[in-house]
Amino acid sequence: MAVALGVKTVSIFGPVDDRVYGPYPPSSDHVVIKKDLPCRPCYENFRFKGCFNEKKCLEDVTADEVYEKVKTLL
């Protein structure tokens, strides 16, 4: 909704594919944080298969990384 309203966003993607779930349209006002792991995206036919990598795609995102991305939008 924020993207549709023109609000700058920082989106964190774990197991899902940011190319499927947005933000749309791509813009410098919308930053995506993700970890490109070989197991990502870890779902099949839009169903979560379970995590076999200890949720590393989310655990590896740091507060400092998010903060730095937020600063680029301010």
Write up what this structure looks like.
This protein has helices at about 20, 55-60, 65-74, and strands at about 10, 30-35, 45, 45-50. The protein has one domain (about 10-65). It has three helices and four strands. With about 70 residues, it is of the alpha+beta class.
Count of DSSP-assigned helices: 3
Count of spatially separate domains: 1
- Along the chain, the helix and strand elements come as EHEEEHH
The percentage helix is 25-40%
Low-pLDDT runs of 5+ residues are none
- DSSP strand count: 4
As laid out across the biggest beta sheet, the strand order is 1-2
Instruction: For the record, give the distance between the C-alpha atoms at the N and C termini, rounded to a whole number.
Output: 19 Å
Q: Sum up the overall morphology in one term.
A: flat
Structural class: alpha+beta
Using only CA atoms, what is the Rg? 13 Å
Average pLDDT level? 90
Q: What composes the largest sheet? A: 2 strands, parallel
Strand percentage, roughly?
A: 15-25%
